[in-house]
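Methods — Computational structure assignment.
A single polypeptide chain was analysed. Its primary sequence is given first, followed by the predicted tertiary structure written as structure tokens.
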Amino acid sequence: MERGRGRRGRTGPPAWLTAGLRPTPAPVPRAAVARAALALSAPLAVGLAADRPAEGALVSMGALSSVIGDTADAYRMRVFNIAVPQLFGALGVTLGTLVFGHGWLAVATLTLVALVSGMISSIGAVASASGLLLLLNAVVGAGLPMPDPWWKAPVLLGLGGLVVLALTLLGWPLRRAAPERAAVAATYRTVAELYEAAGTDAYQEKRHAVTASLNQAYDLILARRARQHGRTSSLARLLAQLNVLVPLLEAAPAADLRARRLGPLPPEVAATVRDLADAVETGRTERPDLTLPPSSRPAEKAVEHALRHAVTVVHEAEPDPYGVDDRLGRPAALTVRARRAVRTMLLSAPAWRYGLRLALCIGLAQALVSLVPVPRSYWVALTVTFVMKPDFGSVFSRAVLRAVGTCLGLVAAALVLAEVPRGWWDVPVMAVLAALIPAFSAKGYAFQTAAITPVILLLSDTLNQEGFDLVLPRLYDSLIGCAIALVAGYLLWPESWHSRIGDRLADAVADSAAYVDRAFRPDADGGGRLRARRKLYRDLSAVRSEFQRALTEPPPTGTRASAWWPLAIAVERIVDATTAARIRVAHGAPPPDPAEVAAVARELRELADALRATETLVAVRADLPGDDDGVLAPLRQEVRAARAIAGPELR
């Protein structure tokens, strides 16, 4: 009986194939659900009332793009995330409309648009959404007949984006800075959970949560400051409250080491941090009486000093807007960042490679639908575009999930097109289907695809009146699009199945060596050390994301990622051990011998060089003598553990 269960476990689908089919636990975003239902159904109702259903469908299509792209928290970022992609979408549908029905000209135009779309997608999140909408709308414009004159389609699609934007801004007078304040308070709460987990196996997981929360909070606040002239006291206070977490985070690794040796930290530590979170969220300025157990060890002193400083800053009513240290990541002016991004994009080999991959796939898809006499549609190129998005995950797994999600969505679409009469019944049906998009998007890509597919089909049917005959051709189109993406966008490009995770990990190890050098240098600049540490943790977070994406790839990439994953964890522990040692020195522990520091840094640089030179993990004995009772003893132990990790030979 037991053997039978084991055989079934071994013969079942591999984890990298089924990972995306498990729904991610996530709360239902009720405001987004209501907004999507209204934004997509109201234009249809207006179009039907005016006896112009096709034009109402185009407005709903524009609203659909904005509903999918409205993922930010801060209102200014949401305006930016909706408005800028809509401008690119208007350009895309204009180009597509102008080449509709022109054969080779349509193929060449969409191929060029795909190249530009792929390259600008490498700049950042907003640029990625803009590149996606540029290409999607160009594909739609080249594949569906649009109303005359040529400018009407981009205006109607843009109007749909304005509808979503207007609905989004209805809550602005009530919330305003609430997303930024809530993000800072949430970061405090993750820090409280981190201290509660000190000394346990859950510490690393909580530290990852802190890094993600801190990154999000900095991004929200600094992005808002970059768009305002001058400095406001409310944002200055939030930034000061966020910056004051840095000493607490630096003390956390030392506290974790102390908890592993002596037992859990006093519960007053986490309770105090949670009280600070409540003060940040409510704006409370009354300073409480801070009661903490007496501290005698360097780690305990570091935590106490950091907490007292945090209490002082959080309850300060009006900090000086010009006295806040925002050197930890304040962005340059928007024009400067735009010039840097364009220059980096044009000189980036990965941006060119991705642009060429996307252009090849779109060119093949559009050639098929434009030149081969088979009943195909724009849906092939549309499928390629969604599958090939690089910042959404593995191309291979997305192709599989896209196929599964499309099949599920087509079942729902078939029921609607077969049983629901066209006309006013489209309005309540669209409201229900649109509401499912934000609810299902948080569950995973396959679920998002299943929710979006019937919406697009219903809108397409309003434009070309094909009815139930849409269903099977769209299934064939989706499968062909997935096949093109897999072959021309995945298998033909060695970088797809020879992952570059080793290079990314090697860079992180080299940065760790530099951090070790800087942390114990007597003349090191404190601000520079803090910025280096923040950058290193951001880079490690990016490496972790790269690994998680690689784990969903089929062999050999997924196998290699599994083998190298323990080393990625070891590098994170090395950074934590370095920070813990530095904090102990800052609070009274004897400083390490410079020769011992140099030996650790040299060992890390050798590890980085080895990672760049091979794809095979080989165990290396690290001889790192030193004081077993000194502050660097835990760090030397982590470095030895990293060098001792071995994996299977992968070629």
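Note: Residues 557-586 form the longest helix (30 residues).
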